[in-house]
Amino acid sequence: MLKVHHLSNSRSQRVLWLVEELGVAYELVKHMRDPVTVRSPPSLFKIHPLGKGPTIEHDGKALTESGAILDYITRRVAGGKLSIPESSPEFADYCFWLHYAEGSAMGPVVFDLLNGMTGNGCGDALRGFFMNELQNSFAYISDVLSKREFLLESGFSAADINMTWVLELAEPLGHIETRPILAAYLKRMQSRPAYKRAMEKGGEQDLQMFRPKAALPLT
Ligand SMILES: N[C@@H](CCC(=O)N[C@@H](CS)C(=O)NCC(=O)O)C(=O)O
C-alpha cells in the first residue's frame, strides 16, 4: 500500500491533500520537526537519505520531491486522475504549472522566508533581486487566475495542489494580503473538503512559525 510520510507544518500537506482528493488507499506516517532547529527528525532520514517532507513509499521504493510525487501518484496509483494525459492539448500547460510551482515560483518565497528568519541575512542587494522575481512570478500567476478558477482551463488538477502550498508559505511573509486574486484562489483551495480532511489527518498547519522576526518592506 502507498505510504505517505508527513512532516509537521510542511509541503507534505500537499500529498495528503492529493490522496484525499483521489480517494486512494494509503497509510499515513507522521514525523515531527525538531522543535529547536525546525529541521526533519532522524526518522525521515531512515526512509530516504535526503530526509525531506514529503516522502512516499510505494512498490518497494522511497520517492521524495513534491512534483515527482504528485506526478507519480496521479499516474501510477490513480490511473491519471487529477493529471492531464499526453494526448491532451493542455498537457504542456499541465507540465508547466506542476513544475513551475515548486521550481521558479517557490525559490524567491523560500529565500524571503530564510531572509526573515535570519533578520535580513541575505542583505538588501540580494533581497532586491529575489523580491523582483517574486513580484514578476506572482503577477503572472495572478493574471492567469484573474481569467479562470484554476491554473488549467479544464479545472482542478494536481498542479493547483502544488501551487497552493507556495502561496500558503508566502502568506505569513505578507505576500498574499496585497494580492486579492491570489488570496481568493487560496481561500477556494482551502475550502475544498479534501483539503480540510487532509488538515484534520495531518494535524493543523501553522505556518505562522515562519513569520519574519522583524517586518521588512514587501518590495
Ligand atoms: N523541493 C522539495 C523541497 C523539500 C523540502 O525542503 N521540504 C521541507 C519541508 S517544507 C523539509 O523537509 N524541511 C526539513 C529539512 O530540510 O530538514 C519538495 O518540493 O519536495
Automatic annotation (TrEMBL):
A molecular function annotated in GO for this UniProt entry is: transferase activity
> Do you know which PROSITE patterns this protein is assigned to?
GST_NTER
Residue ranges annotated as coiled coil are none
| CDD domains in UniProt | GST_N_GTT1_like
Please state every residue range assigned to the domain named GST N-terminal: 1-81
Question: Does Transferase appear among the keywords?
Answer: yes
Q: Which UniProt keywords apply?
A: Transferase
So which domain of life are we looking at? Answer: Bacteria
- Any keyword Transcription regulation? no
Protein name in UniProt? Glutathione S-transferase
Species this chain originates from: Panacagrimonas perspica
